[in-house]
Amino acid sequence: MNESALLANYSRAPVRFVAGDGCYLIDENGRRYLDAIAGIAVCALGHAHPGIAEAVARQARQLVHASNLYYHEPSGELARELTRRSGFARAFFCNSGTEANEAAIKLARKAAYRRGERERNRILAFSGGFHGRTLGALAATANPEYKVGFAPLPEGFGWAPFNDLAALDAAIDERTAACIIEPVQGESGVHPAREEVLHELRRLCSERGALLIFDEVQCGMGRLGDLFAFQSVGVRPDLLTMAKALGNGLPIGAMLVDGSLADALQPGDHGSTFGGSPVSAAAALAHLCIRDELDLDTHVREVGAHAMTKLAALARALPSFVEPPRGRGLLLGLPLREPVRAAAVADALREQGILVGTAGGNTLRVAPPLIVSTEEIDRLVDAIGSVVAGMGAHATK
Question: For the chain, first and last CA: distance in Å?
Answer without folding.
Answer: 36
